[in-house]
Design brief:
The complex is a heterodimer of chains A (about 400) and B (about 190). Chain A is an alpha+beta fold. Chain A is about 30% helix and about 30% strand. Chain A starts with a helix and ends with a strand. Classes of the chains: A alpha+beta (about 400), B mainly alpha (about 190).
Chain lengths: ~400, ~190
């Protein structure tokens, strides 16, 4: 059969009226081989009819249709995994989400993805590139804590997080080095650089995991009517339940109000949009123009400056980073490389024609950069890399 | 696009492959099935059944083209079986036959091309720069008047009415649209 993609390209060219002479000939041959297409093309050449057909097709992108799409997928995954049998010997991460259909699909997904690592290890790597990228180490625990009274300290990278109460200590109880004096009204700022990550337990018991290039501003002690923090970058929250005192996360685009719940907020300065992904509990996302949406577990909300879209989410994907992985599910190459660049603290430039290539797969965040490159090479063998200092360029 | 990654995942028994194929083709397949079975719940069942079959036969697909031929033919068979109420149409054993079956069944072929064509156009719309996408969406969904669209584009209603060809040139300039299909469609909306 003639390549379907080619047929679609020819027809689009025909409808748009910009076929080359050679393509026109190809099209005529196509029509001769498949008379049904003649009717199809003349139908859609009429713009009114095309409008009608596209409107029909567009209903597939409606919220409820997209939700059903996810449910059907979950159903398919459950059915195929009934017959799969045990996987044996892999380590199941601590799971915290309770949304059942999504959770079951996710458990199965993690099992499948571990097999991928063995697969791509077989690809030989390009010797000279490897030397240059040897210095690209993955990120690690690194953050700075600043307080409103002017003090600022580098936090220890042998600890994973800090706990805030009357004093501030590391998560294992050790005190901070430079005798950090704080009082009730102190406002604190925890920030991670590129290549950094850190965790903090706030005064109310809420746990927050910060990804790379992230800033979290919060008070040493919360007030009695509302608990407010500010976020720029990406963080995963497990909010301590308190029905009387709502917890609010403010970002450049929106404000997220929660009662007690587990969710991820992605709101980097360079990105135009923010994404709030809910795993468990309930949140209300509001924009400055007062529109708001309430999310159910398994949903995510993408905020632009003046409107929001609610979509079903792949929970594994949204918090893969917190679990130590990059997970790409048909993500564009440029978006994937942005995330990778932040973590390895490098600059990545992707040639325009490569930007929209879809990336699939999972790789550990703690693997060397070369492993990540191999994943990219797997997707499209024609991609070439050029490394200059800390800058990596991807081209054809 | 090279989909060999997904085929490889399928061969390895990695369901990331099935998920990928589902995300790529479930919309056009659902659209295709609904041309035969109007009821969306039954259509969903058929789509689910087809993807389960893909998984069961995952080792047999050498490339995405063959998998795609199987998707549509198997889906059509299931639709017909449902409509007839009995399992008259059985799936061919040899995957290599599906190409041929697809070419022989003019109706299935045309409906498949239709679904994939609409999918391709919609995907391009989704990938348009934000402003262009908004305007395209506005024309489709929001039934905006010439005044409203003209205001959005910074064109006075008079300018829009007065000189259509100049309006079209301004439109092209504003939106820097290369694909004339979209310009033509927008033009239609502005002046219908």
């Amino acid at each position: 059969m003639q390549n379907l993609d080619r047929i679609v390209e020819l027809l689009k060219g025909y409808l748009g009226g910009d076929l080359t002479a050679d393509e026109s000939i190809e099209l005529q041959e196509l029509f001769a081989a498949h008379p049904g297409l003649v009717e199809l093309s003349s139908e859609l050449k009429d713009i009114g009819q095309l409008e009608h057909a596209l409107q029909d097709y567009e209903t597939l992108y409606n919220e409820d249709r997209v939700n059903r799409e996810q449910l059907v997928l979950n159903d398919i995954l459950l059915r195929i995994n009934d017959g799969k049998g045990g996987r044996g010997g892999h380590h199941l991460r601590q799971n915290i989400w309770l949304y059942s259909a999504v959770a079951i699909a996710l458990l199965v997904l993690s099992a499948g993805l571990f097999m991928l690592r063995d697969y791509y290890l077989m690809i030989p790597s390009n010797g000279s590139d490897q030397l240059l990228t040897e210095n690209f180490t993955p990120g690690h625990n690194k953050a700075t804590l600043a307080s409103s009274d002017g003090n600022s300290i580098e936090l220890s990278d042998t600890h994973t997080g800090i706990v805030v109460s009357d004093n501030i200590t590391y998560s294992d109880g050790t005190h901070l080095e430079s005798g950090h004096h704080t009082h009730e009204d102190t406002r604190l700022t925890l920030s991670t650089p590129k290549g950094g990550q850190y965790q903090v337990t706030l005064a109310d018991g809420t746990k927050v995991w910060l990804n790379a290039a992230t800033v979290l501003r919060y008070p040493q002690k919360f007030g009695n009517d509302v608990r407010v923090v500010e976020l720029e970058g990406e963080a995963y929250f497990e909010v301590a339940r308190n029905e009387k005192v709502p917890f609010v996360v403010r970002t450049k685009n929106e404000s997220v109000q929660v009662l007690g719940t587990h969710f991820n907020v992605n709101t980097y300065k360079d990105d135009q949009i923010s994404t709030v992904s809910l795993l468990e509990g309930s949140v209300k996302v509001s924009l400055p123009n007062e529109t708001s949406k309430i999310l159910k577990p398994g949903q995510q909300c993408v905020s632009h400056t003046d409107h929001m879209e609610v979509q079903p989410m792949n929970a594994g994907e949204a918090v893969a980073w917190k679990n130590g992985e990059f997970m790409f599910n048909s993500e564009s190459l440029v978006s994937a490389m942005d995330k990778i660049a932040r973590w390895y603290d490098i600059e990545v430039i992707v040639e325009p024609q490569l930007r929209e290539i879809a990336i699939w797969g999972t790789v550990s965040r703690y693997d060397k950069f070369d492993k990540v490159l191999e994943l990219i090479k797997l997707v499209d063998k024609r991609i070439k890399f050029k490394v200059e200092g800390r800058r990596v360029m991807l081209m054809k | 696009m090279d989909h060999s990654v997904l085929i490889n995942y399928l061969h390895d028994g990695n369901d990331a492959g099935l998920i990928g194929v589902y995300r790529l083709y479930n919309k056009p397949l659902f659209y295709f099935v609904q041309r035969y079975l109007k009821n969306y719940q039954i259509a969903e069942e058929v789509v689910a059944d087809v993807f389960v079959k893909v998984w069961e036969r995952r080792l047999q697909f050498a490339d995405m083209n063959r998998l795609r031929a199987f998707l549509y033919i198997a889906a059509k068979n299931m639709c017909l079986n449902r409509l007839r109420g009995e399992r008259i149409f059985k799936d061919a054993e040899n995957i290599e036959d599906y190409d041929q079956l697809l070419t022989e069944d003019g109706d299935a072929f045309t409906q498949m091309v239709r679904a994939e064509l609409l999918k391709s156009i919609m995907e391009e719309v989704q990938r348009l720069p934000e402003k262009q996408r908004q305007i395209f969406q506005m024309s489709f969904l929001d039934d905006m008047s010439i005044d409203e669209i003209g205001t959005k584009l910074g064109m006075s209603p008079n300018a829009v009415y007065a000189n259509k060809s100049r309006a079209l040139a301004t439109l092209r300039g504003h939106l820097k649209m290369k694909n004339s299909l979209y310009v033509a469609t927008l033009f239609y909306y502005l002046f219908r």
